[in-house]
Amino acid sequence: MTIYEALKLSGCMIEQLEKAGARPSDHKYVGLFEDYQRARERGEKVSYIVAVLAERYSVSERNVYDIVKRLGSDCKSVSP
């Protein structure tokens, strides 16, 4: 399968995700977001969680804040 064929096959779904506010690379951060949610449920402080996740996932603390905000937000209205 070529890249073209893969895009043709999943293009509609990708387009809907973009309209909903997701970025193509956001799939890489699902685990980070799940770790964040579990830590918050345990009552850990946000700044501590962010520091740990930044090191664990090799991203900056600013990126962790951005990722958590983006993945935790409601989807924008998607019209078919």
Which descriptors apply to this entry?
80 residues, mainly alpha, 4 helices, 66% helix, elongated
Characterize this entry briefly.
The chain is mostly helical. The chain contains four helices and no strands.
Overview of the structural elements:
- 66% of the residues lie in helices and 0% in strands.
- The model has no long low-confidence stretch (mean pLDDT 90).
- The longest helix has 17 residues, at 3-19.
- It is built from four helices and no strands.
- The chain has 80 residues and is mainly α.
- Helix 2 (30-41) runs antiparallel to helix 3 (46-57) and helix 2 (30-41) packs across helix 4.
- It has one domain (3-72).
- It is elongated.
Shape: elongated
Q: What fraction strand?
A: under 5%
Domain tally:
1
Q: Number of helix segments?
A: 4
Uncertain spans = none
Largest sheet: none
Q: What Rg do the Cα atoms give?
A: 15 Å
Separation of the first and last Cα atoms:
27 Å
Q: Kindly report the average pLDDT value.
A: 90
Helix content range: 55-70%
Which structural class should the secondary elements be placed in? Answer: mainly alpha
- The count of DSSP E runs of length 2 or more, i.e. the number of strands, is 0
